[in-house]
Amino acid sequence: MYHWNSLKMVILLLFLLITGLGPVINASPLSACSNCGDFAVPYPLSTSDNCGDKSYKIYCNNDSLEFLSATGTYYKILKIDPNANKLILKPPIILKDTCYSSDLIDGGLVLDENLPFNISTFNTVMLLNCSEDILRSPLNCSSNSICRQFEEKVEEGNGCMNTLCCHYLKDSAMNSHKIRLRFGSCTAYTCLVDFKADDPFETWNYGIELQWIPPKY
Ligand SMILES: *[C@@H]1O[C@H](CO)[C@@H](O)[C@H](O)[C@H]1NC(C)=O
Ligand SMILES: *[C@@H]1O[C@H](CO)[C@@H](O)[C@H](O)[C@H]1NC(C)=O
Ligand SMILES: *[C@@H]1O[C@H](CO)[C@@H](O)[C@H](O)[C@H]1NC(C)=O
Ligand SMILES: *[C@@H]1O[C@H](CO)[C@@H](O)[C@H](O)[C@H]1NC(C)=O
Fold first, then answer.
1. Which domain holds residue 177?
2. How far is the CA of 95 from the centre of ligand 1 (A)?
3. In the 3-class helix/strand/coil scheme, how is the chain assigned residue by residue?
4. What separation in Å is there between the alpha carbon of 178 and the centre of ligand 3?
5. Is the pTM of this model over 0.90?
6. Ligand 4 centre from 65 Cα, in Å?
7. Residues 148-160 pLDDT 10s
8. Within a domain: residue 69?
């Protein structure tokens, strides 16, 4: 008798766990992740399976927070603003004495369209070493485009000097999951967040701002 009752109890508990409690546990927001180095990791961003929300996966590599692109490249995260659902990535470096961004072989920055992140409309992108085809686009490729200042006054841009370059504000009519590069098109880029016309180059805020769709609970 005693045995039979405890067996029933165990079965009842298992039943509750599987059918009842399981979904409740899965659906409720988990806690924020612990810091990565000195960096707070606000919810819903997630550096591990047992914290944050797994759809918002980022990586803590060597005490530095990183974002993984759809092509498998890690971009360092410079800043996170949880109230605005935004984070800022460090633009890839331009390899020394060339005009190649380090993510050129990946086709530039490519976000996974199934993830809740996109490229915000506060980014001013400079495309460098472009082919003439770019002139058919509505980008600003004039001799007073800010990309000229980047090439002439910023050391990282020196390798791109005297190539065709353009800049544009990433607006909502554009693909918000890509900054595209290609051999024979443009081979390097950099990006500024919250750039205002006439901001002097010494004050430029380099970054690629991403926005995330907040979780729906
Ligand atoms: C980790 O970071 C430290 C300090 O910045 C650096 O010296 C070290 O080379 C890094 N290790 C790796 C594997 O990146
Ligand atoms: C291109 O950008 C420069 C610098 O912001 C600006 O002065 C110029 O008016 C722009 N030209 C066009 C055609 O939009
Ligand atoms: C510019 O791009 C072309 C290919 O589109 C490449 O052959 C050339 O080396 C690039 N220039 C620089 C300075 O990297
Ligand atoms: C990016 O996602 C945010 C949050 O859902 C949305 O408000 C915004 O319109 C999206 N931006 C673009 C350019 O698609």
1. 78-212
2. 20
3. CHHHHHHHHHHHHHHHHHHHHHHHHHHCCCCCEEEECCEEECCCCECCCCCCCHHHECEEECCEEEEECCCCCEEEEEEEECCCCEEEECCCCECCCCCCECCHHHCEEECCCCCCEEECCCEEEEEEEECHHHHHCCCECCCCCHHHHHHHHCHHHHHHCCCEEEEEECCCCCCCCEEECCCCCEEEEEEEECCCCCCCHHHCCECEEEEECCCCC
4. 21
5. no
6. 23
7. 999 999 999 999 9
8. no
